[in-house]
Amino acid sequence: MPPPERASRPQAVLFACGMNAVRSPMAAALMSQMFGRTIYVGSAGVQKGELDPFAVAAMEEIGIDIARHKPMTFEELEDLEGLNFDLIVTLSPPAHHKALDLTRTIAAEVEYWPTVDPTGTEGSREQRLNAYREVRDQLLARIRERFGSKATGNE
């Protein structure tokens, strides 16, 4: 069941996962493409990973370049620009626990969108890439469901 419709969209959304290397950068890039400058979007991880080349490839297929994304932790994001987000969307259990802990000191809503980590997929390159495509497409559908499909025109 989708969350209840809110009176207005949040002004700033943070997507968070375990390593900020696959799910959260994909979600942030999709959201940024859909809503442009109307919603500030960021991403972070509980730990800092290395950007996954399969994530880059899956996003390139739909015309979104995340190759320059630099994974960062919640703490690095806070030091860099602060954690001034209205909504934190968590994509993994560790990120969800971290976000809930943060709500002790920041006023942000937290939503949990359980999202499979495709990095453990085995098989051929195509089979592995398919797992990343599925995650990308699920995130896109969830963003559209939650925030509407109003796009900036470059979809």
CA radius of gyration: 15 Å
The poorly predicted ranges are 151-155
Q: Write down the overall mean pLDDT.
A: 90
| Strand order, largest beta sheet | 2-1-3-4
The SSE order reads EHEHHEHEH
Structural class: alpha/beta
What percentage of residues falls in helices of 4 or more residues?
Answer: 40-55%
Per DSSP, the total helix count is 5
Strand content: 5-15%
Helix and strand topology:
Layout: E1 12-17, H1 23-35, E2 40-45, H2 53-60, H3 74-81, E3 87-90, H4 93-102, E4 109-112, H5 125-147
Parallel strand pairs: 1-2, 1-3, 3-4
Descriptive overview:
Helix 4 links the parallel strand 3 and strand 4 (109-112). The model is unreliable at 151-155 (pLDDT under 50). With 155 residues, the chain is an alpha/beta fold. It has 5 helices and 4 strands, in the order βαβααβαβα. The two termini are 26 Å apart. 40% of the residues lie in helices and 13% in strands. It has a 4-stranded parallel sheet, sandwiched between helices.
Q: What brief labels describe this structure?
A:
155 residues; alpha/beta; four-stranded parallel sheet; 5 helices; 4 strands; globular; disordered C terminus
Short description:
40% of the residues lie in helices and 13% in strands.
